[in-house]
Design a protein that fits this description.
three-stranded antiparallel β-sheet, alpha+beta, Tetrahydropterin Synthase, Chain A, two-stranded antiparallel sheet, 43% helix, single chain, rod-shaped
Length: 161
């Protein structure tokens, strides 16, 4: 029995096993329980989820960002249809839409900014959007409508966003 060739064979098999294991683990991706992960292939989203653990194909990309609920405070000033000045102060709470390609749309819109705890650019865009919609609604309402039917203003903003 030749112990030298047996040792060489075992070392070779050990190296091959280690290389195969390393290659396989380079294709395993995990995200935390409070973190979104998107799997992208050729610019399209293949999978998404919070706390997602999955195998990916070579060439696939993964993106991770926190699954936080964000709060944005805003003020909007506008004149009504009767040329009366109105100021609306509000708060907008937003998060990533979970269904369909919502996470991918959010990532395409806000990019790397989502990776921070407080996505400044995303919050500023949401603030500008809410302010713009409220100003439009106020401009097309009378002062009486605004004072008596605030829910109409609120529901109109929710609809448009």
């Amino acid at each position: 029995m030749d112990y030298g060739s047996t040792i060489v064979t075992l070392l070779f098999l050990g190296y091959i096993s280690w290389a195969a294991y390393s290659q396989a683990m380079s294709l395993w991706r995990e995200s935390k329980a409070n973190e979104w992960m998107l799997v992208l292939r050729n610019g399209e989203m293949i999978k998404s989820g919070i706390g997602l653990n999955t195998w990916i194909n070579p060439g696939d990309q993964t993106v991770k960002f926190p699954s936080l609920i964000n709060q944005v405070n805003f003020n909007a000033q506008q004149v009504t249809s009767e040329m009366q000045g109105v100021e609306v102060t509000g708060m907008l709470i937003w998060s990533v839409h979970r269904q369909g390609d919502g996470p991918f749309k959010c990532y395409k819109s806000f990019g790397k900014d989502l990776e921070s705890k407080v996505p400044v650019v995303a919050n500023e865009k949401m603030k500008a959007l809410a302010t713009s919609i409220i100003r439009d609604r106020i401009a097309n309402m009378s002062l009486d409508e605004i004072l008596k039917n605030r829910s109409k203003l609120r529901s109109g903003v929710k609809e448009e966003i």
